[in-house]
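User: What would this chain look like folded?
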Amino acid sequence: MADLAFVDLTEIRNLGYYTGSTFEVFTREIKPLEVELIVAEVGDDNLAGHENNSIYRVKFDGFISDHSGHCVIGGEAEEVERMLDQRYQEAMPLGEAVRLAREALSRGTNGGGSLAANSLEVCVLERARAGRKFVRLSTDEVQGMLDA
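Assistant: Here's the prediction, encoded as structure tokens.
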């Protein structure tokens, strides 16, 4: 699995371009890579038809699926997804969501051992933020949430 890259898409219609490009690049090679992307559209109350947040999973073969609330990719995605399906709640406080995500990832990667804050990359999409909505949290911010 390749490292995750974050791309700002100003219009969700660009998703088709990314899926087509991904499919072409990763299926024409002799040994294709299996790359998956998660694309999140941050809703905008001032943009008709785009008031709600959306999450899309793009598989290496170009298949796109819609998700609500959370989406998981990677080696143990099914295990992590099961736990989130059971315990994730809409509008969870950020700290609670980060603690749940760490617990789910820990269960998926090593059977329940706790992951350290410095091994997590936590990012937030802030709907009310002007300009770029994407914010990466520092290790100290993540540690503070995990300790609460």
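Residues 1-7 have pLDDT under 50 and may be disordered. If you want, I can go into more detail on any region.
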